[in-house]
Amino acid sequence: MKVFLVFAHPNPHSLNAALKDHAVHKLQEAGHEVKISDLYAMNWKAVADGDDFPERDRSQPLNYEAVSGEAYRSGTQAPDVVAEQEKLLWADAVILQFPLWWYGMPAILKGWVERVYANGFAYGRGLHGKAKYGERYGEGILQGKRAMVCVTVGGRVAHYGPRGIGGQIDDLLWPIQHGVLFYPGMTVVPPTL
Predict the structure, then answer these.
(1) What are the backbone angles phi and psi of residue 112, rounded to the nearest 5°?
(2) Which positions of the chain have pLDDT values less than 70?
(3) DSSP reduced 3-state for 19
(4) pLDDT recorded at residue 94
(5) Residue 11 burial (CB < 10 Å; 0-12/13-18/19+)?
(6) CA atoms of 98 and 109, how far apart (whole Å)
(7) What is the Cα 81 distance to its own chain's centre?
(8) Residue 128 burial (CB < 10 Å; 0-12/13-18/19+)?
(9) What is the DSSP letter of 128?
(10) Cα(159)–Cα(180) distance, integer angstroms
(11) Distance between the two ends of the chain, CA-based, in angstroms?
């Protein structure tokens, strides 16, 4: 199996880094191929802006969604975006590894999603009409791939369970699992505590 792990933690000596290293070791030991995007080590540009489209007409106001689609279709996306899209297409399974910060993913990972999930790649695909609104929620370009999140939280397990002060982990991860992973087609492996 080909596994793509997207890692988002600034400290290479963190618990998250240790978990990533352990996962990679165990996956490779089991004979799987692994590619890693360590966003902080890569100095990933998290801001979605006009610099993502070197070919665009800068005299016009930036409509990121429209320009994103034009760049995807014409093959003029930023090279870092294309490289990440190629890793997603290569993979059989995708793992997002990050700490849960302020009830969500770190900004660098959110920026990765916003830039890599280009119009025409992760959304805006397929027929759009009265009964159909494109290929989404299990039907997209990443259909057939499995995905999971591996997160750490700053509290006890009970804090993220039923009646937990931090909220149920399934509820906290819903936007990521449903909106980021399932939307473009991936089958989400449920989390375990």
Answers:
(1) -60, -50
(2) 125-129, 132, 134-135, 158-160, 166-167, 192-193
(3) helix
(4) 97
(5) exposed
(6) 8
(7) 12
(8) exposed
(9) B
(10) 24
(11) 24
Nearest-angstrom CA–CA distance, 21 and 182: 26
Q: Identify the pLDDT of residue 47.
A: 94
Handedness of CA 12, 14, 17, 22 (dihedral sign): positive
Which position has the token pair 């159909």?
A: 132
pLDDT tens digits, one per residue of 12-52: 999 999 999 999 999 999 999 999 999 999 999 999 999 99
Q: Angle at the Cα of 188 (from 72 to 107), degrees rounded to 5?
A: 60
Strand 33-38: give its sheet, edge to edge.
Answer: 33-38, 2-7, 93-99, 146-152, 187-188
Give every CB contact of residue 10 below 8 A, 6+ residues apart in sequence: 40
pTM score of the predicted model: 0.90
* Phi and psi torsions of 96, nearest 5°: -100, 120
**CATH architecture of the domain formed by 2-188:** 3-Layer(aba) Sandwich (3.40)
